[in-house]
Fold these 2 entries.
Entry 1:
Amino acid sequence: MSPSWSPAVTVVGAGLAGCEAALQLACRGVPVQLVEMRPETPTPAHQTGDPAEIVCSNSLKSTVLSTASGCLKQEMELLGCRLLQLARAAAVPAGAALAVDKAAFSRLVREALEAEPLIRLETGQVRELPARPDHLWLVAGGPLSSPDLIREIGTLTGQPALHFFDAIAPTVTADSLDTEILFRAARYDKGDSDYWNAPLDQEQYESLHRELLAAERAAVHDFDRADLFDGCQPIEEIAASGPQSLAFGPLRPVGLKDPRTGRRPHAVIQLRQENLEGTLYGLVGFQTRLKFGEQKRVFRQIPGLAKAEFVRYGQMHRNFYLDTPRCLAADFSLPARPDVFLAGQITGVEGYVESMASGLVTALRAVARLRG
């Protein structure tokens, strides 16, 4: 950083919330230092040091205005959300949902950051948040922030961080799928037939259910099933809830009909395109903590996936977040340190779009503070 250049705001974390916040601040004339610890300090889930890396599903959920996610996107676009524009530029076919090519999206975000002269993107850990004259902190380190930063926030808030366990679904190559068994369709025929669907009859479903329950799981330090995030539970944990829990959950067949039989299958596993080239597909709803060898063995029993090649296996990690109602003021700053704002998943918001929205709104609040 040049001695003659001094940021008005330091944004900690170049995830979705941090990148959106930095771009919003810069376009309003605010000099921003954006600090990301990766790749110098890796996390259990990220694979690169790129900004706005999406580690789980590539879906940003529905674009339909009658849904909460679709309505939120519309409101964010009216506010000029930068990352949502870039997500649309990196979109892949996903029916009525907005899904992105993760690498292309991250590349577009980096280009946007580098094109903004008021943003300095730097690599390194932020371990402390010292008060400085005429300076604000905007912490968007995400749920995988470093232990030192988590401790610093805990010291400033007087409250320990909370946590839950989250999981990632596996990705397979398109060439390894048996398209003689799979069929193309979108649920309820919404949008184009962008998903590959693996139909299961009752016998196949019950066999998969048994295998999921019997498969060996990877050990996770201090794991407690009660700490699982309900919206992203591992597939084997859903299976443990009951014999039909999958059929009424991620494998629900409603809105889908196998064109070869003309009937709705007993259960369906959907695969969503993950890159612009259409060479990678993710198993929708198949977040898991099964051991890698068990994932390969069990998931290859799914019709159409007998020769599936896995480019990424599912895994579980611990996510940290704040008890926001007790820790933060209404503008998401620290009551004892009004110069420190927080945004993104570390504040407890759920989802990619929600993280972008949090970064956008918190940036506007920081601008308002700077302008008095």
Entry 2:
Amino acid sequence: MSLQPSIHSCFQDAVLYPKLFKLQDNLYAASFFLMKLLPAKFILDNARKEGKIRPGSTIAETTSGTFGLALAMLCNHYGYKCILVSDPVLDPLLKNRIESLGAVVDIVAEPSKVGGYQRARLDRLNEHLDKHKDSFWPMQYENHNNPSSYALLAEYFATALGKIDCLIGTVGSGGSMCGTSLFLRKVNPDMQAIGVDTINSILFGQPDGKRLVRGLGNSIMPAILDHTIFDEVHWLSAEETFAATRNIHKQHGLFVGATGGAAYKVAKHWADRHPKLTTVFICADEGYRYLDNVFDDNWVDAQNLNLNRAFPEPLITSSPLKEMKQWTMMDWGRRTLQEVIQANRSNVEVMA
């Protein structure tokens, strides 16, 4: 084994791409330090090239997760000011980490009467944008540079693994799965793309509701989410997601976040049933943010969760509108959300 050490000029470049782990003959984990660095860097680099920002400019965004951390890291490195608007759901440890990088974190204390915290955060963000004239809003849910950035990841996968038959990942903004799948299908048009969501997320038609899992799911529909990318969609409960996150750590030593655990559960199931096909799943971050929740027995007990209640097979549904309580999957068939909803309504009318 020959060592080929790399020397990087900055930390972000050293961790921009994931490490690849072979978990079984046909199953690979793509484990990121912080996946959101990839779109955040791509968006800011393009904004700089287009003359929209320069050193000293203010980058302002609404976020409660790792996209905010990625922006704070990059702004610190490139000399931009950073203002992040969030709400009380923001992890205090993550807030401390972001602020230690020099970013300002503005917590909206009360939800709006219409639109809840999402509306209140957007209103506060617009106040900051109006106040700071030399400002830029990355708009991760609407900026098509988000999915475009994942052409780099697709090239990385193709170079390392060759033909990929199935890509599996969780969906929050839709950027990673839509962008990576789009570019991988230029090499293999038949590649399966499987999206993993959480129950009570509106992204694939579930009614909005309380969610415990961070990093996937949403209460608003991102403009960049292209539903026609997906062949299958799986919904997991918090219990199943957290149990899988612990399992991948116990069985393979991979210390990943809850989104990685959710993707692993679905990918393991698919790979076992397609032993001759190469399966890759995405782990978007490491497990350190989850030490005081997912990996904490006291926190799990306080949420009345039973992580031993595992389901080896998903329930099959023909409608995303149905109430779900456990792992459920649907043959999405690369359709729009509207097509899926309309097909469900037509089936109900026929049955009536």
